[in-house]
Amino acid sequence: MLLMISAIYTIYTLIKFYAAIMEVGFIVKAKKTEAVILGPANFIKAANYKIASLKMDLVSILYDLLIFIWWIGYGLNMLENNISIGDEILKSVVFIDLFIVINYLFSLPFDLYKTFSLDKEYGFSNIDAKTYLMDQIKSGVLFLVFGSLVVALLSWIILNFANWWIWGFVMIFIIILFVNMIYPTLIAPIFNKFTPLENDELRVSIEDLLKKAGLKSSGVFSLDASKRDSRLNAYFGGLGKSKRVVLFDTLIKKLDKNELLAVLGHELGHFKHKDILKNILSSGLMLFIMFAIFGNLPKDLFLELGLSNGVYMNIVFFLLFSPILSFVFMPIFGMISRKNEYAADEYGSECESKEALSSALMKLANENRSFPLSHPLTIFLYFTHPPLVERLRRLGVEIKASKECMEESCKA
Fold this sequence. Notes:
Blueprint: H1 2-30, H2 40-81, H3 88-121, H4 129-160, H5 164-191, E1 194-196, H6 200-213, E2 220-223, E3 234-237, E4 244-248, H7 249-254, H8 257-272, H9 275-294, H10 299-304, H11 311-351, H12 354-368, H13 376-382, H14 388-394, H15 403-409
Parallel strand pairs: 2-4
Antiparallel strand pairs: 1-2, 3-4
Helix pairs in contact: 1-2, 2-3, 3-4, 3-11, 4-5, 5-9, 6-8, 8-11, 8-12, 9-11, 11-12
């Protein structure tokens, strides 16, 4: 059993590593061709940033494998042998908290490098050390308080129900829905400042757009994203009455009114087509399958690893192996999501115009310096949105580019 789980994780690592290698090679070749969508300077800069990010990912993928081997071979035993707490629920909370904190410390060098070196070098990150530190402290406090409560509840369910994985799934799914409901009004404001949109003309136009789509929101807000990052974005946050429209201040500065309305129209397309509900249900299905697997692990597995069958071991194995199952499901969800994105683009262009939406997408790509071409394997494994080239073609934009790169990028 130990050999099997090690083999599964190794195969997962090799697939990710191979995909990243193929993507690096593709972009190195593609950046030498004629620029598409982005201006020539941004095209090269976006390619260089993507290559640098992928090289960091390659190191991170191998590093994660070493961390996994360390946990399985030594770390879990070490942690278990050094926690002498009689109460099973309290022991579970301490064990899982320490497991997550140690993993956080392992991953911290990569996050620091990306935030303060790589993203700074390419002009994305605006964050200072104080803001970063405060973000980490706030996130840590939220995790220690609410994360510990969730672990305690799940541990109690494992101890008291034979088919605990069913009730554990129900509890976690309800918590996820609740967090999504309160996130825009209670959690997000801890990290960012939200102010009602000051542009009355734009606000009225957005409200008219929402009314036309039949969406009721709690307001239209601007978010001070520029204090951390220069990228552009917008989203609809929350569920039920907590839904709100959030525009990054960077987006408001860079897009004109028609382009903003087209982007929001695209997001409203997801609401009209019930994509949000579909995503919740599909995520719930994936979570249910994960609980079914990790709720029925053979006891021999723990014995082979020299571990007890304590409640915390079920939870920690879920945390260790859930990325693999997510990776397996991702291509399926990606294909469905890419199809939904085309439909949302169609709705967004009907709300404003194809010209406004295509112009907005090209501005987003240029400002975010998103390299517009990718290897087919990367698209298949990771993309939730269709390649920008294909989205623009659907909107009637003529794209001139190297035939070889276009064909390779859009096979998937």
